[in-house]
Amino acid sequence: MPIFKGHGFTPDHWALAPDDAPLSGGRAVVSKVRFLAERDALTARNAPLGLILRSGESLDGLEDDLDRFQLIVLEIPKYTDGRAYSTARLLRERYKYTGELRASGDVLRDQIMFLHRVGFDSFEVTHEGTIAALRDGKIKLVRNHYQAAAREGEESAPGRRPWLRVSPRGVPGDALDMGIDGGGI
Amino acid sequence: MYRYDEFDHDLVRERVAEFSDQVARRLSGELTEDQFKPLRLMNGVYLQLHAYMLRIAVPYGTLSSRQMRKLAHIARTYDRDYGHFTTRQNLQFHWAKLEEVPKILAELAEVEMHCIQTSGNCIRNISADHFAGASADEVIDPRPYAEILRQWSSLHPEFSLLPRKFKLALIGAPNDRAAIQVHDIGLEVKRNEAGELGFAVWVGGGQGRTPMIAKKVRDFLPEADLIAYMEAILRIYNQQGRRDNKFKARIKILVHEMGEAEMKAAIEKEFAAIDETNMVLPRDAVERIERYFAPPPFDTRFNGAPAFERARETDRDFASFVERNVHPHKMRGYAIATVSLKPIGGTPGDMTSAQMDAVAEIAEQYSFDEVRVSHEQNLVLPHVKLEDLPAVYAHLRGAQLATANYGLVTDIIACPGLDYCSLANARSIPIAQRLSERFADPARQRDIGDLKIKISGCINACGHHHVGHIGILGVDRKGEEFYQITLGGSGDETCSIGEIVGKGFSSAGVIDAVETIVDTYLRVRQSADENFLAAYRRVGEAPFQEALYAHAA
């Protein structure tokens, strides 16, 4: 499935490795169970490694290895499941994870900004309407925010209320460049 | 009160644009009702039995006259000329047309109002003591913190898809008028022994099908840590709250299953791990919000209130109003007045557009332009000069809003029930109306004294029946409306959950049953000073059961 990242959809160069199949030489995304079981062998490989966390799986036990992953995929089985939003912020803010962070699953267009703000930078979306909206740049969104999140440094902090944040326009990699348009009237 | 600046205006306008786009997509058929549902719920639009219902947030229950007039205008223009005030200090319009919702939202935005997070599994409208900033017993005004938390929780990127809805309430007085112990988080603003500002924090209270009283997890949380601590609690809930069963998804169940000690430890651990650099709440920022809630320019030259005294002596109706609906103010020469939305035989919480306009006018003239909505479905004029009370009373009377029944047996809370709500099992409003008529006699009401009756039309408990001194829960029994009665609940600082007194009653029988309970109380009380709740706590349920069920056995 194509991945939405940066300016638009791109092919996915990552392959999810089933837990019981031997890994090929290239880049691979493994589950938490497999990583913990085969940690030494996996980190000794000379190829990019990704991690997928199923919804409800925590970062417990992975804290010291997070910088080994070029990609972390957080699954969102249903748009109402908000657990990945917390995991994403922990990855970015607490563990300073700087690799690609991907939301994979059932995402509504109105959630793209929330996902962006908690630290996701790529999207593997199953929802047809969301895919179309991303493709056509038709997402209207709220650019002003009342709280700091995982985009400190990118978002500006206007005014005298220290918790206010504003998403930038036109900065490479920001919401605008992701095909998301502001909702101004 | 709080006033929007450009930032706030822009945010709400963007949100209206976003939702207007969604409504247009629904109306064009691009979105199915299923796809539209989560979007409309984030914006306070419910699909009820007969029509869409729009729930408007009234942050911590505070309204200006201008806002009240706008609500009147919306009721007249887009609804059936009335609105319904709820137990979350909000206002509901029950007959909104979906195609007109964007227009209503745009009109609301003009007066700094919106419907954001009045539904959905997110942090709901923050509620607070409806006497805040006015009451004689207040230690600290909780509204600045309620406003800060309103902002923090609005469109929060991490906490908008929680396992279930999440409700916060604040007080700043020893008497709890906001039922904080039956909220997901309850906060009491206080000072510690060193005189510093902070909060006592309760977590895990709630009503619904599993009523629970919240646990105190912090006796004193320093002011600066407020937001970080809230994030810690919400993060634990977001990650660990149950998502497999919506009836077990509220934080109260998590607290119950983890246990109080483990929950406390988990919160403290997460709180300690949060980087507070961008999370700390500095004093000067709080002060800037506090300025919005500065006391109004009270007249401090109090030389007695002769017109007030004279009216109290000569007008018995006014004297009754003062006795029941007027409460002590922190400023000498002023009072707080409750505007009862519980006329005899009426629908609790309903108000016509003409009445809204009348209250707006009175507030503008006599209460520094402020109106409050109470979670008991009444309105409050927070700052009325004693000397002006007779005039206020006369105006209220003219608008049929002078019912002198605050806290009495006819001051009933009731959810909309099966008359409107698609979740309900039974009607609530007709029960409230018939009870109100049964106990209509003012002398009898005064003799009975303080008594809170609360009615819910289903187990979701929007009518707060668990904390009613007498609680009534509508259930469906083989297609028939049936009513279960609980006794001894209370939502104040002595919080308790009511106990089921015995088998339920039919719609016809429940009114007699309540009367039997009230008569039993009058018989067992030690004196008129021992109110219903005190008497119940002393004697227990036995005399009431005896009276209700003895001849049936």
Folded structure, characterized:
The complex is a heterodimer of chains A (185) and B (553). Helices cover 22% and strands 22% of the residues of chain A. Chain A contains five helices and eleven strands. The longest helix of chain A is centred in the middle third of the chain and has 12 residues, at 83-94. The relative contact order of chain A is 0.14. Chain B is α+β, with helices and mostly antiparallel strands. In chain B, helix 16 (507-524) packs across helix 17 (532-539). The radius of gyration of chain B is 23 Å and the shape is globular. The interface between A and B is large, with 43 and 46 residues.
Helix content class of chain B: 25-40%
Q: Which structural category fits the helices and strands of chain B?
A: alpha+beta
CATH fold-level topology of chain A: TIM Barrel
Count helical runs of chain B: 18
Beta content of chain A:
15-25%
Main sheet summary of chain B: 6 strands, mixed
What is the fourth-level CATH superfamily of chain A? Aldolase class I
The string of secondary-structure elements of chain A, in order, is EEEHHEEHEHEHEEEE
CATH topology of the largest domain in chain B: Sulfite Reductase Hemoprotein, domain 1
Q: Tell me the CATH architecture of chain A.
A: Alpha-Beta Barrel
Distance from N terminus to C terminus of chain B (CA atoms, Å) equals: 58 Å
Q: Which stretches of chain B of 5+ consecutive residues score pLDDT under 50?
A: none
Uncertain ranges of chain A: 170-185
Keywords:
heterodimer; A: 185 residues; alpha/beta; TIM Barrel; seven-stranded mixed beta sheet; two-stranded parallel sheet; 5 helices; globular; disordered C terminus; B: 553 residues; alpha+beta; Sulfite Reductase Hemoprotein, domain 2; Sulfite Reductase Hemoprotein, domain 1; 4 domains; six-stranded mixed beta sheet; five-stranded antiparallel beta sheet; 18 helices; 37% helix
